[in-house]
Specification:
This is Phosphate-binding protein. By secondary structure, this protein is α/β, with parallel strands linked by helices. It folds into two domains: about 160 residues, D-Maltodextrin-Binding Protein, domain 2 (3-Layer(aba) Sandwich); about 150 residues, D-Maltodextrin-Binding Protein, domain 2 (3-Layer(aba) Sandwich), CATH 3.40.190. Helices cover about 35% and strands about 20% of the residues. The strands form two sheets. Strands 1, 2, 3, 4, 6, 7, 8, 9 and 12 form a nine-stranded mixed β-sheet that branches. Strand 6, helix 6 and strand 7 form a beta-alpha-beta unit. Helix 10 packs antiparallel against helix 12. The longest helix has 17 residues. The protein is elongated.
Length: about 325
């Protein structure tokens, strides 16, 4: 007879196992962290974790078709979707999405919520618009068109950004709910695949603004905006402002949650998370996946912070481990 598993009855630590490989795919936002963890994990255990940054939509599709051991998505699946696909879902870490821009002679650009909504609704078309000048006194902004760079693929980063925009801008936008690939309704638009693709376009093209996970902006040496948050304060992107968003998050069934536009004086307004997806029926493979993420939760916090990812609160990590016990580690006591 099976009893409900507990943390005491579960063994997550991986022993050295040369030649074993684990395959994952999905979110490009979380890719730098998973790949950094995988490098250290391989040194310690000999277990190789391969991860493809193909976007959240492809990650969901690939794990749903059992093409990989785990998928990763920045747009969490709802409980009924998890049940339909027979998937287990849990969060990995939180991240900040930022607006990066290319104006060589303009540093420290500050955007109000009204300005952001104007840009993404198409009402603001030029860099020297009064709403942008209003929060940037003393800066000389060029009279050139704003070129908005978005994701071409089904993207969890897009889902996070549109979640923020829907809350902040309300009726101004052509879309009314978060989406991995919305109809932007903008004429001044260019699309690129992956966070790396968006960052590359911004890096090369004068007059652009687009959204990327913060690590990509830092690695690419991109300028990023200061943003007005829900409390009306102007905040710079930082690990601390990303972590502030986690204080008020409600994690529902299947760890479903929305981290964007949270309250707090120092809270960054565009914070998202990445969730791992595992096929429930593949228990032996799932043990390998759980062992990897247990290592990440136990030994990977400093690497996460180094890359500007906000580690999960300890109580959330413990709930994740209990979920692993219930769903993966079933013992006959």
């Amino acid at each position: 007879m099976y009893k409900r598993a507990t943390l005491v009855g579960c063994l997550f630590t991986a022993s050295v196992a040369i030649g074993i490989e684990v395959n994952g795919a999905g979110s490009s936002a979380i890719a730098p962290l998973i790949q950094a963890w995988a490098k250290e994990y391989y040194k310690e255990t000999g277990i190789k974790v391969n991860y493809q940054a193909v976007g959240s939509g492809s990650g969901i599709r690939m794990v749903s078709q059992r093409m990989v051991d785990f998928g990763a998505t920045d747009a969490p699946l709802k409980p009924n979707q998890l049940e339909k696909k027979n998937l287990l879902q849990f969060p990995i870490a939180a991240f900040g999405a930022v607006f990066a821009y290319n104006l060589p002679n303009v540093d420290g650009l500050k955007l109000s919520t009204r300005a952001v909504c104007g840009i993404f609704s198409g009402k603001i078309k030029y860099w020297d618009d009064p709403l942008i000048l209003e929060t940037n006194p003393g800066k000389t902004l060029p009279h050139i068109p704003i070129l908005v760079v978005v994701r071409a693929d089904k993207s969890g980063t897009t889902y996070t950004v549109t979640s923020y925009l829907v809350k902040a801008c309300k009726e101004e936008l052509p879309f009314k709910k978060p989406s991995k690939k919305p109809r932007w309704g903008l004429s001044n638009l260019v699309a690129a695949k992956g966070n790396a693709g968006v960052a590359a376009v911004i890096q090369k093209k004068f007059g652009t603004i687009g959204y990327v996970e913060y690590t990509y902006a830092v690695k690419g040496g991109l300028k990023v905006t200061t943003l007005q948050n829900r409390d009306g304060n102007y905040v710079k992107p930082s690990l601390e402002s990303f972590q502030a968003a986690l204080k008020n998050v409600h994690w529902g069934e299947g760890f479903y949650a929305d981290l964007t536009y949270q309250p707090g004086s120092n809270t960054w307004p565009i914070v998202g998370a990445t969730w791992a997806l595992l096929p429930l029926e593949k228990k032996e493979r799932n043990k390998l996946v759980a062992q990897f993420f247990h290592w990440g939760f136990s030994k990977g916090d400093e690497k996460a912070k180094e890359l500007y990812y906000a580690p999960l609160p300890k109580d959330v990590v413990n709930k994740v481990k209990v979920t692993w016990c219930d769903s993966i580690y079933l013992y006959n006591y």
